[in-house]
Structures are given as structure tokens and as C-alpha cells.
Amino acid sequence: MGRNTLTATEAVRIEEGKLSQFRRVLRRGDQQLLDQLFVHMSKHTSAIGAAEHLLPFETMLLIVCLEQERELHVLSERLAKLETLVERLKKKGKTDG
Known about the structure:
By secondary structure, the chain is an all-alpha fold. The protein is built from five helices and no strands.
């Protein structure tokens, strides 16, 4: 007997195919961003497969949110470090001047 359910990888590819016309009308830069979202989804196929109670596309959207949250966290940490550095430089400049 053959397998009746799609793998998560297959589900991602199918959704990517369904959105091909949508992708085509996007600006080139937006096409590249959409492609990157599918790259992120492909990295999380195990999680997509484990979320059986959700539709595959719902899980893919959740993965996109997760990746964006990760990037936001990284950027927030970098900003905090830069703000700390700027404050230190300001204080040093006041004591040296």
C-alpha cells in the first residue's frame, strides 16, 4: 500500500507551486523575499509535520512568524549593545573633554 498523506516537504512544495502566479506579479525584490520565506519553511519541515492538528499552510505561516521573531530578537539584541556602546562613548567623551 502506498502512503496517503503528504510529507511536510511535499506540502511546502505544493503551497509554493500554488503561489507561483501570486509570486509572478510581485516586484522582483518581493519575489526574493517570498522565496526566502519558503527557504525558512523548508528548514522546519519536521515541525510542520509534527503539527498535525493544523493545516499545512497554517503551520507554514507560523514558521514564517517564528523566523521573523528570531530576526527581531537578534536585531533587538544588536541594537541594545550599540546603544550601550554609544552611551559609554558619550560618557567617555564628557570625561575626556
